[in-house]
Every structure is written in C-alpha cells, then in structure tokens.
Amino acid sequence: MKKENKYKPLDAMEYPRFEGIRTFMRLPFETNLKSVDFTIVGVPFDTGGTFRVGSRFGPSGIRDNSLLLRPYNPAQNIEIFKYCSGTDYGDLPIVPGYLPESHKLIYEGAKKIFNQNVIPIFMGGDHSISLPILRAIKKKFGPVALVHFDAHSDLWHGYFDNKDTHGTPFRRAIEEELIDTSRSIQIGLRGPLYNLKDYQMSTDAGLLAIPGPELHRIGNQKAIDIIKERTGDGPAYLTFDIDFIDPAFAPGTGTPEAGGFTGYDGMEIVRGLKNINFVGYDMVEVMPPYDPADITSLLAANIMYEFISIIAIQKKTK
C-alpha cells in the first residue's frame, strides 16, 4: 500500500482559504525536507533591478494568491498530493541593497536545499537570483540545460559598469559554465533593443532562441516540440520571467514589453514540458506594487502550480 504523503495543503472544505498563515497553497511551513518531493522557496531580493523595483514583494504576493489553488489539476488530470509531498520553505535571507552579499546567502541557501534531494521552486525577486541558484545547481548536477521564458535575453555584459544586474545573469552563467549552452533555449524574446548585436546575443552565445514574433507564428505546440528536442534527457532548470506574458495580462513587472503572450500560452507551453528532467524552477520579476487586482501574482501562482503538477506527473510515472 502506498504511504500517504506527509506534507500537503490544508483541506479548504474544512478550513476556509482565507484562514491561517500565508504559505504557498497553504502547504506546511517546513525546512526539514525529509520525505519531501518539492519545496517552495521565497527570494525577496530586487537590488539587481535597473528600472522598476518591487519584486522583493513578489513571494508574499504570490503566496497570497496561491490560496485559490486546489490539489486536483484538471488540465493535466493529476491529483498532485496523491503522488508527491511538498512544503513551503519560507524565504532565504538576503541583505537589502547589497547584491554580492545577498547572492552569497542565496547560493548557500539553495545549495543546502539541493543537497536534501528535493526539487525547489524559487520565487523572486528579480532575475539576478537565478545566478546563485545555478551556481548551487552546478555543485550537485554540473552544467544543466536552461529553459528560459522571458521578453529579454538577460545576456548583457553589464549595466552602469556593473556586471551583476537582472539583465546579466545568463552572461555570467555562461562564463562560469553553469549551463550547457548546446541544450539551452530562450523563448519569447521581444521588444526594442540598443542595436543589432543585442538581437544576436543569444545565438552568439550558443543558445537557441525562439523570439516572440516567431513563437506567435509557429504556435505553442511547435515550441514545445523544439524545447523538448533541444534539452534532451539530461538535467534542466526552468526559469520563468513573468514579463514573458504580455503586460495586458501581467502588468506587475519591472520591464514590461508589448507584443507578448497570454497567461494561457504560458501555462500551455509549461504543461507540454512534463517529460523534461527539471531539477529546479524559478518564477521571477513579479511586482505587487504595480499589479492591479493581483492579476500578475495570481498568474504567477498558477504557472508555479503547473511546475508542481509536472513534479507530480513524473512521480506518478516512475
């Protein structure tokens, strides 16, 4: 007989969803990850931002709106907590205003989580947080495939004579050999750039890119097929900048770009990636101060719900 999973959300039929301490999906708050398959980790850091800031409030906004999620995902036909166990780990410590110090703390916290053999889902925070997380991943898995949803490549060499911002993490990741560029892909890139060289940064770095206009043209299923073929069977990391979504559907972000994608597009593509060997995920650049009616935070919570559903599906089929 299958042992019942130890960690799962409170039953909303017994405890109203607006009750209790705010954890993601009302999961138990727990940092001892024994008997845990996944954990939700807040990283409330936005000092890497170069335009709007406020994503330090992203984890709390996403947690608030995750109260609407339920344990059965009809789109994927999976009873999540029948097959996997999950917790909310709380937030990693950071030092507001100090990027190098914060990145060290994020790295140490992420390394501790990966060493407990669970799949973490991180909530930023700005996109600079992906860099220390990838450093922790390399310690355990070596270079991984990067599946990167974003309006921007985040491959700039620097901003304001600073090599570490939310626009540079994947340039540093390539330099440090944290990712396997031959298996990595960027999806949804769009918007005005400084020059032609900016447009060519992804391919010049050895990454495959599906620019936003091309994704609109080929459609979601073709994109799913390309992503799966590109990443192969090895370990992979999925990073989702909410500005992949059009600002009509996700206005609460730092550098919005017109011409993006619907919330359904984002969820549908993620659902199609359930056979990829993801060792971790992140959701970044959600800014509640710019988010009317919490629609961006709600969408981010639902996309993270699809991450969790993938974990459950993979546990079910093992």
Relevant terms:
globular; 318 residues; two-stranded antiparallel sheet; Arginase, Chain A; 33% helix; alpha/beta
Textual characterization of the structure:
Helices cover 33% and strands 14% of the residues. The strands form two sheets. An eight-stranded parallel sheet has the order 4-1-5-10-9-6-7-8, sandwiched between helices. A two-stranded antiparallel ribbon has the order 2-3. It has helices at 58-65, 80-83, 99-114, 130-141, 169-175, 196-199, 201-204, 212-218, 220-231, 263-271, 295-317, and strands at residues 38-43, 72-73, 78-79, 86-91, 119-124, 145-149, 185-187, 208-210, 236-241, 278-284. It has one domain (24-317): Ureohydrolase domain (Arginase, Chain A, 3-Layer(aba) Sandwich), CATH 3.40.800. By secondary structure, the protein is of the alpha/beta class.
Strand and helix map with partners:
Layout: E1 38-43, H1 58-65, E2 72-73, E3 78-79, H2 80-83, E4 86-91, H3 99-114, E5 119-124, H4 130-141, E6 145-149, H5 169-175, E7 185-187, H6 196-199, H7 201-204, E8 208-210, H8 212-218, H9 220-231, E9 236-241, H10 263-271, E10 278-284, H11 295-317
Parallel strand pairs: 1-4, 1-5, 5-10, 6-7, 6-9, 7-8, 9-10
Antiparallel strand pairs: 2-3
